[in-house]
Write a structure and sequence with these properties.
Elements lengths: L5 H22 L5 H12 L4 H9 L7 H37 L19 H15 L3 E2 L5 E3 H4 L11 H4 L11 E3 L5 H9 L4 E10 L10 E11 L4 H16 L5 E6 L4 E10 L16 E10 L1 H6 L8 E8 H9 L6 H4 L2 H4 L7
Parallel strand pairs: 1-4
Antiparallel strand pairs: 2-3, 4-5, 5-9, 6-7, 7-8, 8-9
The structure holds phenylalanine.
The site of phenylalanine has 12 residues, from strand 7, strand 8 and strand 9.
Length: 356
């Protein structure tokens, strides 16, 4: 300011206002947040032009101050409201800018996920099995993994001192040998028969446990149990059902066969073989040159089992089978080492599909 009179202050105020108006005119067509902020600082900032005018008032004669104050305040209000308008315009401009720059294209493919999990081969096989058995009219049930001796052994016609109990390498839960980790899914037969009356058509997949660990055995493994109880059920029905689901999984051109074998809860009992999925019967490493693969046990339900659950063994017959799911999965997916099935190795698991 040149001198300290009100006249010069008013002159100065008018000049500031004129400058401001011309600055506004320059940016008003497309104000950006940055240009508006620069303008705000230039006029209203601590060292801004309007602040300088306020400062100048201190040098005026006392009686001139109210009038000058009014004039400067007036100017400040004008500047403030003009800048507020510009801020609104600048925000709109910025929004418009964004809309123009990156229009959202909803038809673009999403970024592919590289870290998604996949289904475990045992899960895949279990789902495949259940799908096939549901198609054949079976109901899927579940049962306890920790169970009483009664369900795992005695009701299944394992006599107390029967050597077959030793064959099962049982994990006992309590000292009195009354509670066990089930050694097979056959305990479901007893649970399901006690809870329902015939006819029955049931499958039950689940974990099973045996105190056994080597190249081809793990302490925990998976089985699927299946059984039918009705009037006039025969071995022919059994062979038909098993043949049908194995073919559904491994292909129509593979043969199956039954060999006689012993399980206390079936009579007659047998083991079921599938023609080797690898060499198709010629003999190779997978099938130990026999051309056949053991899949599981089966047989006609023993009358003593029916007695244990109070079914009329004169009226009803039935068959049961139990297969290892892990083995079925290994054969299906060409896995040659059982340990891979339980190690949780990400590289191994990521080869399997996400969906079943
Ligand atoms: N539970 C038998 C096992 O684990 C398999 C089996 C089931 C055999 C049903 C006959 C009938 O070895």
């Amino acid at each position: 300011m040149t001198d300290n009179t009100i006249a010069s202050l008013e002159k100065e105020a008018t000049s500031v206002e004129n400058q401001f108006q011309s600055n506004v005119a320059n940016i008003t067509a497309n104000p950006t947040p940055k240009s508006v902020d620069e303008l705000r600082i230039a006029y209203l900032g601590r060292k801004g032009k309007v602040s300088a005018l306020m400062e100048g008032m201190r040098h005026l004669a006392k009686e001139d101050r109210p009038a000058a104050g009014k004039a400067v305040n007036n100017l400040r209000q004008k500047v403030e409201s003009a800048i507020e308008d510009l801020i609104i315009k600048a925000n709109e401009w910025q929004l418009q800018q964004k809309l123009n720059q990156s229009p959202l294209d909803v038809t673009l493919p999403v970024k592919t996920q590289t870290n998604t999990g996949s289904l475990h081969p045992v899960t895949l096989m279990r789902r495949t099995l259940l799908r096939e058995f549901r198609r054949l009219g079976f109901t899927v049930v579940d049962g306890p993994e920790v169970d009483l001796d009664f369900y795992n052994f005695s009701a299944l016609n394992f006599k107390d001192d029967h050597p077959a109990r030793d064959m099962q390498d049982t994990f006992f839960i309590d000292g009195r040998d009354k509670t066990v980790l089930r050694t097979h899914t056959s305990n479901i037969q007893i649970h399901a028969m006690l809870e329902n009356s015939p006819p029955l058509r049931v499958v039950a997949p689940g974990r099973t446990y045996r105190c056994d660990s080597d190249l081809t055995h793990t302490p925990m493994f998976h089985q699927i149990e299946g059984f039918i109880v009705d009037e006039r059920i025969t071995m022919g029905d059994m062979k038909g059902v098993i043949d049908k689901f194995l073919k559904a999984i491994y292909g129509e051109d593979l043969s199956t066969r039954v060999r006689p074998s012993y399980f206390p809860f079936v009579e007659p009992g047998g083991e079921f073989d599938l023609q080797c999925v690898k060499c198709r019967g010629k003999g190779c490493r997978i099938c130990s040159k026999t051309g056949w693969l053991e899949i599981g046990g089966m047989g006609m339900i023993h009358p003593n089992v029916f007695e244990a659950v109070s079914y009329d063994s004169e009226k009803y017959t039935g068959f049961a089978f139990g297969f290892g799911i892990d083995r079925l999965a290994m054969l299906k997916y060409g896995v040659t080492d059982l340990r891979l099935m339980f190690e949780g190795n990400k590289q191994f698991l990521s080869q399997f599909p996400i969906h079943s």
